[in-house]
Design goal:
Elements lengths: L43 E3 L2 E3 L9 E4 L29 H11 L2 H15 L2 H10 L3 E7 L2 H4 L5 H12 L3 E8 L22 H18 L5 E5 L10 H16 L6 E5 L11 H4 L4 E8 L6 H23 L3 E7 L6 H13 L3 E4 L17 E2 L15 H7 L9 E2 L1 H12 L2
Parallel strand pairs: 3-4, 3-10, 4-5, 5-6, 6-7, 7-8, 8-9, 9-10
Antiparallel strand pairs: 1-2, 11-12
Helix pairs in contact: 1-2, 6-7, 9-10, 10-12
């Protein structure tokens, strides 16, 4: 979100991320995942539509799984300021969170805590809930760090793909944080870095990462496709975004000719997006995000939607003749559940695929907003304190973030059920 608060050296000549030791990091062999048991149809593009194998139009109607593999402090119950007199830094992002815990405890403890967090935040039951609301897709943000931190770097993506297939959900794999980071924002995993577009070695690492991911999942129809670079706002100019994305496209297509590939604009505007047919991109979907943080009323959100739809119709459908995916949006501030129904219905009518941000939030001081389908309306009873808590205390406190222990934002889930049943 615009203002929300390189693989290891292995024979490909990749460099390790500066914040992690390479000594014990796993190699990323491009081992194909086992054959899918899913009967979900493969997706492809046909003109301005996403269609299934029979040519039937498919509108992806999804939810983002924020907070699972990308920890964003504004939506999680961590204490982020060090105690007075501490030499430890403030926690602003994924890297600083886990560095503080490794410094205080140990690397082994950090890895156990990381696994515990992921086991508590999203489980198979969450995929069932998402299916039951009526969604047909999840967008899964992940960081390149995932493949450098753990002995089994495929564990979490494999789980997501398996669970999604079991419940009839498509998955969009979203590289939220690229090697070197593609902007200065905290949600890249490391606030203030922004080196992806300025050092060719980072692009090479991203190419190899996507090539390995595509090789592993090329036979999995439950994966709708790959979102190459989330919000690439750190590029020195628009051309650099699409030069980098073309390199990533070529890397993936060297091993996977079939999956959809999603290309984001980095908030530079739809009129600056490339023409996939000119570049020879196949199964390409252009994508952007929409947040109206200056909105003063629900009507402002509706006006923004009408403007977006008109822009997509002219700039993407008529000129570029390509499908469009609204990969993130929310109607905070001043949105209403009925406004969300209208958004979903209008997007569906225009064959615009979409994914709402986000599935759940657990804010320290409580939340009554539209940010999460599941949330805590009261202050969290026991905030997680990376500066003082022991490993066992942190794991015990994680029970608070299990979806079963949160409150369902029923006004939102009921509104979405209404919109999704009307699709």
């Amino acid at each position: 979100m615009i203002s929300r608060r390189h693989l290891l050296a292995n024979g490909c000549g990749l460099l390790a991320a500066a914040c992690y030791s390479t000594k014990d990091a796993p190699s990323l062999a491009a081992t194909p995942h086992r054959e899918s048991a899913s009967t979900m149809p493969w997706l492809r593009t046909l003109g301005t539509q996403i269609v299934d194998e029979k040519g039937n139009p498919v509108v992806l109607q999804g939810i983002n799984l924020g907070g699972w593999l990308v920890e964003e402090m504004w939506m999680l119950p961590f204490i982020t300021e060090p105690p007075s007199g501490s030499d430890l830094p403030p926690i602003r992002d994924h890297v600083s969170l886990w560095n503080v815990l490794q410094t205080r405890l140990s690397k082994a403890s950090k890895l156990r805590l990381m696994a515990a967090w992921r086991d508590h935040w999203i489980t198979e039951e969450d995929f069932r809930r998402i299916r039951d609301i009526g969604f047909n897709c999840v967008r899964l943000p992940f960081l390149h760090d995932l493949f450098e931190e753990e002995s089994n770097p495929w564990l979490w993506l494999d789980k997501a793909v398996e669970w999604a297939g079991k419940y009839g959900l498509y998955v969009v794999l979203d590289m939220h944080g690229a090697p070197g980071r593609q902007s200065r924002d905290h949600h890249t995993g490391e606030e203030g870095r922004n080196r992806f577009f300025y050092d060719p070695s980072y692009l090479e690492r991203a190419e190899n990462l996507w090539r390995n991911i595509a090789a592993r999942y090329r036979d999995r129809p439950e994966i709708a496709g790959y979102d190459l670079l989330n919000e690439p706002m750190g590029a020195p100019n628009t051309a650099m975004i699409y030069l980098a994305e073309d390199r990533l496209y070529q890397a993936i297509r060297s091993v996977d000719k079939r999956h959809l590939l999603f290309f984001e604009d980095g908030y530079t505007g739809l009129s600056n997006m490339p023409y996939p047919n000119v570049l020879g991109w196949t199964n390409a979907v252009l994508s952007a995000h929409s947040y109206q943080f200056q909105a003063k009323s629900a009507q402002d959100h509706l006006n923004a939607l009408r403007g977006l739809i008109a822009n997509v119709e002219q700039t993407i459908y008529q000129q570029r003749k390509t499908p469009f995916y609204l990969g993130e949006f929310n109607l905070e501030p001043h949105g209403t559940p009925q406004t969300l129904v209208t958004w979903a219905q209008m997007l569906n009518a225009q064959q615009i695929s979409w994914s709402l941000w986000t599935y759940k939030v657990t804010m320290r001081n409580g939340d009554t907003s539209m940010w999460g389908l599941y949330h805590n309306t009261h202050p969290i009873a026991q905030p997680l304190d990376p500066y003082r808590d022991s490993e066992s205390a942190l794991i015990a406190k994680m029970d608070q973030v299990k979806t079963a222990n949160l409150e369902e934002n029923t006004s939102l889930t009921m509104a979405l059920q209404q919109a999704l049943k009307a699709k």
